[in-house]
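Hi all, posting the design record for the shared folder.

TITLE: backbone redesign
STEP: 1 of 1
STRUCTURE INPUT:
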């Protein structure tokens, strides 16, 4: 949906064009490299797998619906993305401790080790890409990128027009 005149009237169109161009370049470069790290681990785990494993690591075992809701995607998508992770032994399916009929997904020891290997490689890539940046620059960039991602996420799940209440 286009922005209202009120939202863009105080913003320089040249700046907005430059910003959208830089975001498009970032998306293309991120997809090209999949921000996959360095060394032998480079590009060895796709984005969906990394995000799923990372969430299970940070939040612990959970069901498909909770995982999907936390990631802002459909349960069927999570089910499809988790299947190869289960097949390769990175994720385990177990019974819910309180409801044996429900399935809970959790990171396996193999998944934990693989995730740490990929994280380490990606940390090295981030260090290389931001080499020469001050710590303040790195922190500012991370803060702003987090804020930008949050705004995009809200836009995808929240009201699409300015002034529309969220509840």
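Okay, here is what came back for every position:
SEQUENCE:
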């Amino acid at each position: 949906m286009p922005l209202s005149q009120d939202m863009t009237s105080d913003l320089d169109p040249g700046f907005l064009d430059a910003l959208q161009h830089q975001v498009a370049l970032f998306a293309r470069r991120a997809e090209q490299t999949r921000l996959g790290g360095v060394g032998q681990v480079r590009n060895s785990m796709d984005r969906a797998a990394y995000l799923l494993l990372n969430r299970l690591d940070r939040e612990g075992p959970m069901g498909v619906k909770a995982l999907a809701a936390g990631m802002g995607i459909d349960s069927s998508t999570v089910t499809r993305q988790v299947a190869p992770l289960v097949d390769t032994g990175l994720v385990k399916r177990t019974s819910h401790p309180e409801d044996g009929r429900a399935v809970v997904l959790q990171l396996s020891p193999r998944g934990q080790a693989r995730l740490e290997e990929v994280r380490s490689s990606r940390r090295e890539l981030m260090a290389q890409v931001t080499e020469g940046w001050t710590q303040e620059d790195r922190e500012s960039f991370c803060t702003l990128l987090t804020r930008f991602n949050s705004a995009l996420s809200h836009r995808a799940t929240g009201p699409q027009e300015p002034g529309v209440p969220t509840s």
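COMMENT: The CA atoms of residues 96 and 102 lie 5 Å apart.
Let me know if anyone wants the other runs.
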